[in-house]
From TrEMBL, chain A:
GO terms for biological process: cytochrome complex assembly. It comes from the Bacteria. It is a multi-pass membrane protein. This is Cytochrome c biogenesis protein CcsA. It comes from Pelagicoccus mobilis. The lineage of its organism: Bacteria, Pseudomonadati, Verrucomicrobiota, Opitutia, Puniceicoccales. One of its GO terms (molecular function) is heme binding.
From TrEMBL, chain B:
The keyword Iron-sulfur does not apply. This is Cytochrome c biogenesis protein ResB. It is a multi-pass membrane protein. GO terms for cellular component: membrane. PANTHER family: CYTOCHROME C BIOGENESIS PROTEIN CCS1, CHLOROPLASTIC. The chain crosses the membrane at residues 7-27, 66-86, 93-115, 356-376.
């Protein structure tokens, strides 16, 4: 028991953290926003729960998945969305548009930076950034200019736009998206949605009868038609604006098909009664406006049940995505990896077997959560775990952790856990920055449509990246730990050298087979095996570098130090293949183009080169005794 | 002789070549932002030396070994190493397979680089074609349209136009003299400010327009638009003087220009080089599906019927993303479409070395797997020893 105390405590701590994070996702409100958040709709071509609609919309507008209102209170995304779709007049005042560009802010109403309460805080963190956030009402006055400038800027290729032009296009898109959200469930022209439906139900049958008379050329009552025409006009604009689809409909050509909210008009004129889904949305709208919690909560539950009955598959996908959002597996994994990192580091000075074991088993728990997160994504998208750069970063972290676990299992000295933690933290943070305000569960473009060879290609090549990074980080560890501590003794040095050699063999196999399977896929779909596309060239660079390392070792040109330095340079090559080639903006692998971030890559390369330089400091200056 | 063989078979040469290959590929990739993929491939990979044009010397100066040279050096290095250094034995099986596969891979890529041809097939819905159009080359077609039933086409390939020679075709009663050929050109309205050279054209649309030469592009999104100026003159000469029919400007994407001579009607047009194929392809339907409520393409597909001229056999095929049509030695895949979703553009590829990459990479992957398995076995034996 005592032997495993640290292990048990650390795993308990990790799961406790996951639980508290999960609980934190429920908004503190009497309204049942949890249930509302699970309601499936179709936006951006895919089924998603309202919770994701809320989070992704906010992410695009203010860069976060939550909103801070004008009174300084913080709110969950779904609370903000409920207000936007049910009671837009209030949502128009929420400062959710983040604008960093000074030029763009200059054409908007002036906002003075808030004053910090304490002078120390102000000195430390500056004056805060609340003056960077604008509400829809604040933008409205200048929208004509914004729209004009955005139209002009969108004629220019996105890489060539100025900072102002990028900002103005972004703002225009976000403002339109926000406005569309507010006109998705209700147009807001009448105070009560239910009354409106009732009114329509009474005039519709008469209007239909009069229309038929008109078509037959008989005398008809134009007065009763007039009322109906007013509705039709209102609903037409409303239908065009809607940001998402709310009603499952009959499939067209075997493809799933949904309708927008304006479809209630059709229902009423056709069947004389709105469907359960429409009625529940109307009830939710009215209850929200009247602050009627009990009715709201009941309608939310009924709406969810009605959607489950209509489209069970969409319902379960949305439910899974809702769980995924609440669990936020990759976020909690970062915390888990940090924890493993600390355990591994502290196990060395104390030579503690217990901490070492705790690091290993906690790593397994974190790895499980990381895997579960990828599993959720696969289920939600219905496709292999790597579909864009974001998911490739998550997969690289996962792959490196898997390799580390194997190494740690073999050697049990904490080094594997340590490296796993470092790569896990780094890759998940990189992934986080790759989100860049977009929905990462995007739909597959046609060219990447499901195909066996493509799946094999993407998964093996990305695993090749993961394993090359793994050997590179061992190299860094060998250099830094060897220089500054006495940790790298003769036996450990030998062990690390053999691990690096083994992993490089492994990554040669994977990066080669990954590249080849890409060629096979290209040949099967395009009739040519190799096209010298930037991404293909990047992959072959990685294979070549691994092959060079192996031949250098066999030829005796590189001993331990040389192999380690070359493995570290592998990080440079891999990051070029993985990210750098996407920054060129050309070629067929356009699924993951990035505009910026090049300077981050450059900084990474410089650090790698610096570590390689450190590796060549004469051995007598090292703390550890190394034989090079 | 021996030191040379030793050098050829050496690991130093291997590593040197591999490092050079990395540098070459890196530069070849970076330069794609300027030259496009096609342009950079020709400049860096499908060449013996990478050269740079030096203006004051007026020559291309080689400054880096190209893809062919590095590939050939690796090829020799590999072969000599196999002969002089590699040992036989079941433990060396993986190594042998990897290097044998590599030799085949190099050969395959060389064959592809020389023999692979790419062309397009553009079809409107309901339309039929029995020819493909080159993506890079043009031809000057003289079409005898006298017979209302069938046209007779005399096509002059780009290579002959480039040489600016006088062309004689037996069946035609006139010579064609190529005065100017521009691999890429822009069109301008001809007015008083037009250069002297524009005034030689005295027929057709060249009276209203003239072409100016612009640098060639290798970018995927752009296309060269060649122009040529040709003078036609009669084969029969009277008193040593041939009758001159006229001088025309022809440019790709411009309409046919008609003229008559000796009672026969002709059309003159510069168009993408065509290759007649042994079957008719009819586009029955083109579909372009999008994800609900978005413009994100979900699928493109072309429903086609192929009618073989030789056998009369008719077959239906559906060409869509990742599912090309392979017929005879050609591969047709869904490449693009024109706005309006009525016209499908198929890419057509012929690659006689197609099977070599499959064979070579299978052999190499097998070799790597065997080698890796041996390595793991050795490793676990060592571990067992260490544990004991």
């Amino acid at each position: 028991m005592k032997r495993n105390l640290a292990t048990i405590l650390s795993i308990l701590f990790f799961f406790g953290y996951i639980y508290s994070n999960f609980k934190k996702q429920t908004p503190k409100s009497d309204f049942d926003f949890d249930t509302l958040g699970k309601v499936p709709v179709i936006m951006n071509g895919r089924v998603q729960p309202l919770d994701s609609v809320a989070k992704n919309s906010l992410l695009a507008m203010n860069g976060k998945r939550s909103a801070v209102y004008q009174d300084g209170t913080k709110h969950h995304a779904i609370e903000w969305l409920a207000e936007a779709i049910f009671e837009p007049s209030a949502a128009f005042d929420r400062p959710v548009f983040r604008i960093h560009d000074d030029g763009l802010r200059a054409i908007l109403p002036h906002k003075t930076p808030e004053q910090r309460d304490s002078a120390i805080m102000a000195a430390l963190f500056g004056s805060g950034s609340s003056h960077h956030y604008y509400s829809f009402n604040e933008i409205r006055g200048s929208f004509e200019k914004i729209r004009r400038d955005a139209m002009e800027a969108s004629q220019i290729e996105s890489e060539l736009r100025t900072r102002y032009q990028k900002a103005v296009v972004n703002l225009a898109n976000n403002a339109i998206q926000f406005y569309n959200l507010t006109r998705t469930i209700h147009h807001g022209e009448t105070p009560s949605y239910l009354d409106e439906l009732a009114a329509m139900q009474t005039i519709a049958p008469k209007a239909v009868a009069e229309t038929e008379k008109q078509q037959r050329g008989e005398a008809f009552d134009s007065e009763s038609l007039q009322g109906m025409l007013g509705f039709i006009q209102l609903y037409r604009g409303f239908g065009e604006n809607a940001a998402f689809f709310t009603h499952p409909a009959e499939p067209v050509d075997g493809q799933p098909n949904w309708d927008k909210m304006s479809v209630v008009l059709d229902e009423v004129t056709r069947d004389g009664a709105p469907s359960k889904i429409s009625k529940n949305y109307a009830t939710l709208t009215d209850a929200y406006r009247q602050d009627d919690v009990a009715t709201f909560n009941q309608a939310a539950a009924e709406l969810l049940a009605a959607l489950d009955a209509e489209d069970a598959k969409a319902f379960s996908k949305a439910k899974a995505e809702h769980q995924f959002n609440y669990l936020s597996p990759f976020y909690v994994s970062i915390v888990g990896y940090v924890f493993v990192f600390l355990l591994a580091v502290f196990s060395w000075p104390f030579s503690s077997r217990g901490l070492n074991r705790a690091a290993f088993w906690t790593l397994i728990a974190v790895f499980a959560i990381h895997t579960i997160g990828m599993g959720y994504r696969v289920y939600i998208i219905g496709y292999a775990p790597v579909i864009n750069l974001y998911s490739s970063a998550i997969y690289v972290g996962w792959g490196a952790t898997l390799l580390s676990l194997i190494i740690e299992r073999l050697y049990r000295n904490g080094i594997g856990s340590f490296i796993a933690a470092v790569i896990g933290i780094a890759s998940l943070i990189v992934a986080h920055h790759l989100i860049d305000g977009r929905d990462t569960l995007e739909q597959m473009k046609a060219v990447l449509d499901s195909n066996f060879w493509l799946t094999v290609h993407v998964l093996t090549i990305t695993f090749g990246y993961a394993s090359t990074f793994f050997s590179g980080f061992i190299g860094i560890f060998w250099v830094l730990a060897g220089l500054t501590t006495k940790l790298i003794d003769k036996q450990r040095s030998k062990m690390l050298a053999s691990v690096v050699y083994g992993i490089i063999c492994f990554s040669t196999l994977f990066s080669f087979f990954g590249t080849v399977s890409g060629g096979i896929w290209a040949d099967q779909s395009w009739g040519r095996f190799w096209g010298w596309d930037p991404k293909e060239n990047g992959a072959i660079l990685l294979v070549l570098w691994n092959v060079i390392i192996l031949h250098s070792r066999w030829g005796g040109f590189a001993k331990t130090r040389g192999i380690m330095a070359m493995a570290i340079f592998g990080n440079v090559v891999t990051s070029w293949s993985w990210m750098g080639t996407n920054m060129l903006g050309i070629g067929l692998h356009s699924y993951g183009f990035m505009n910026s971030a090049f300077h981050y890559l450059l900084a990474f390369w410089l650090t790698q080169l610096a570590v390689i330089a450190l590796a060549y400091i004469p051995a007598k200056n090292w703390k550890s005794e190394i034989r090079v | 002789m021996k030191p040379l063989l030793k050098l050829l078979a050496s690991l130093e040469l291997t590593i040197g070549c591999l490092v050079l290959a990395m540098v070459l590929i890196l530069f070849g990739t970076l330069d794609q932002t300027h030259l496009g993929i096609h342009g950079a491939t020709e400049k860096y990979f499908y060449t013996v030396f990478v050269t740079q044009y030096v203006e004051f010397l007026d020559i291309n100066v080689p400054y880096m070994p190209g893809g062919y040279l590095i590939g050939f050096a690796l090829f020799l290095n590999n072969l000599s190493a196999m002969i002089y250094r590699f040992r036989m034995g079941s433990k060396k099986l993986g190594i042998w397979l990897i290097h044998l596969g590599f030799v085949l891979l190099l050969l395959g890529e060389f064959i592809s680089s020389v023999f692979q041809e790419e062309a397009n097939l553009t079809l409107d819905e309901g339309g039929t074609a029995d020819f493909t159009e080159s993506t890079s080359l043009v031809e000057l077609a003289v079409i005898d349209t006298t017979d209302t039933e069938t046209d007779r086409v005399y096509a002059i390939p780009e290579a002959m136009l480039e040489r600016k020679q006088q062309i004689e075709i037996d069946e035609l009663p006139f010579h064609i003299s190529v005065d100017v050929f521009m691999p890429n050109s822009a069109l301008q309205r001809r007015d008083d400010t037009a250069p002297e050279s524009a005034h030689v054209v005295n027929q057709g649309f060249g009276l209203q327009y003239f072409a100016i030469e612009v640098p060639e592009t290798g970018k995927m999104s752009e296309r060269n638009q060649p122009s040529t100026i040709v003078t036609l003159f009669a084969k029969e000469s009277v008193d040593g003087e041939s009758e001159i029919l006229g001088t025309w400007l022809a440019r790709e994407f411009m309409r046919h220009q008609s003229f008559s001579y000796q009672g026969r009607n002709y059309d003159l047009v510069l168009r993408r080089q065509r290759e007649i194929i042994d079957y008719y392809i009819t586009l029955n339907d083109f579909s372009h599906d999008r994800y609900l409520g978005t413009n994100i393409p979900k699928n493109f597909s072309s429903d086609v019927t192929v009618k073989d001229k030789r056998t009369g056999l008719e077959q239906d095929f559906l060409i869509y993303m990742n599912n090309p049509l392979r017929y005879d030695d050609l591969t047709f895949y869904q490449a693009s479409f024109l706005p309006g979703d009525q016209t499908s553009i198929l890419q057509v590829v012929r690659n006689p070395g197609r099977s070599l990459p499959y064979i070579s990479t299978t052999v190499m992957t097998l070799g790597l797997a065997i080698q890796f398995a041996f390595g793991l076995q050795r490793f676990s034996k060592k571990r067992k020893k260490a544990d004991a």
